[in-house]
Amino acid sequence: MTETATKTPETEGTKRNWLREHSELGICVLLALLGVLVLSDAASISTDFTQRGPVGPKTVPFLIGGLLLLVSVLLARDVLRGGHGESETGEDVDLSAPSDWRTVLLLSASFLANAVLINVIGFPLSGMILFWGCAYALGSRNAVRDPLLAAVLSVVTYFVFNNLLGVPLPGGPLMGVL
Fold this sequence. Notes:
Helix 5 crosses helix 6. The protein is 62% helix and 0% strand. The protein has six helices and no strands. The protein is mostly helical. The model has no long low-confidence stretch (mean pLDDT 85). It has two domains: 60 residues; 74 residues, no CATH class. Keywords: Membrane, Transmembrane, Transmembrane helix.
């Protein structure tokens, strides 16, 4: 004779408690999925004979994907052995306070404006909007210093990436000037 297992409120509560106590396993699954995604994308990177060398274009993605899988396995082992993350105890963090959606929306708008405008007006100007918008969203209200600092940061970032690192960024109307 076989007995069929029935779901009782006690077993449901036990399962919920176990899942609540081991909620970090969700992060493990997320890290593992991300590692598999990175590895599968890395495997599809095309390389021809002229690009080969001791370190090809697949090396870093394979390394990152493998490390993501390793971290997910090590974290899962730690969680299953009873380890868990510490709760937030920062003295400047009030966990009962509501989220500051105005700041989040202003930061999001700055990033979105940069993404939309970078190919239209170039990186130096869109980067200036990004830096200035982020400074404003985070509380800086100096009308002279903030745009000046944003302009310097965006132009320096443009020169570092475009000229020193060889990563071409759109210059926009300032292409001839810079």
